[in-house]
Amino acid sequence: MSFAYFALIVCLVSASALDIAGAKFGVQLGMTATALGLFAAVFSARKADYEHYLRATVWGRWILIGIPLCIAAQLVPLWLSWAHPIWASSHDALAGLSLGPVTADLGLTLNALFQALAAISLLSVTIVVVRDRSRAELVLFVLSGVTAVSALTLDLRPFSSALATAVPSDLATTMAGLGVMLNIAVMQLAAERAETRHSVVRSVAIGLCGLGGALASAVAVFGLSGTNSAIAAAFGLVLMLLILVIRRIDLSPLAAGALSLAALVGAMIVLSFLFEKNAGPILLRLVADVGAETRAALERMLADTRWFGAGAGTFSAVGRIYQSDAGAALMAPSTAFAIFADTGWVGFSAALLAGMMALGRLFLGALQRGRDSFFPAAAAACLVFALVESFAGSGLLHPAAILCLSTIVGLGLSQSVTQSSRGTGH
After folding, report:
1. Cβ atoms within 10 A of the Cβ of 28, count?
2. pLDDT in tens, 99-122
3. Is position 422 within any domain?
4. Could you tell me which of 418, 371, 415, 367 has the C-alpha nearest to residue 196?
5. Structural domains in the chain (count)
């Protein structure tokens, strides 16, 4: 399992650092490391590892299988009435078979399929690898460090013109939002270490590192990002605070349920207010102003989107059909918009359901966990931020953010069911 652990760290650091730096091969390197880690985990896993994985994924194991299968189904030739209209046009012009896939671009959808497989594989490898508490701690440190460095690129942007052009602001914002939750978890880890008679000096050093990362991330997401991104991060912080209050006060299940329900109602009221502030399609209400011409093109794309979408990963290709300016590329205004355009109502609903199911599992795991509850609590908070941010920005479309979020969820799920800090790796 040691090699799988090493591959996990390499994947996180390489994919994130290279994606932030704008290198094109960062995704390939991360996917390669993920594949090697998956093979190592499969061949070195013991029965206890397998049982642990089954317990961690019992909430929705079908999702891990269903997502790549749905994307793969978009590549299968179907009757033209089910296929993308581009293939019907090709048939009318060139004749040939009366078949065509759902996707408008086979190559882009195939690439999206590989990325989905990499994300799911990384989540699975993480669940098995971080059974050992020391490994879970190091993965948390790496995640908090990577996200804090990403946030610093946004913090330093006013002082460096090179950073302003080199680092995508949507990616830096997303990583900063995740960094707030992760670095707060590092501070909680340091506090638990001090309470359990670990080295006070080391605990203080860890806590100060977490504080520095949390401050850098908070400045980036609350001070230098859009209002809706800041609200998304606030939702995550409120969830962490809710979990902490329920655990510290030691509320009964009935009282904890009532408090959680009240928090959920409050969150729904705030979200309703946010979505009702602006008019137009619901998927465009939280995004930044994109201009009247671009907005009109995006609305036409929404109106033309069918039940199964235009194919995963094809937004850039299909967007050329709707752009009015031949020299300007139509970019996805948000992650939710891109998912809907690529996979239609079916894929969008499935993605939203999967996120909500994972959130529920992490929330319950944080409340039921004895020690180290900050692992699932931070993962749940990151997932809340990601769900809201997906309607406000496109940062989660970057491979670095996808791989980091997969690792975060895997870490939270694994530690939700682990009941002992005793090492189990080998």
Report:
1. 16
2. 778 788 889 999 999 989 989 999
3. no
4. 371
5. 1
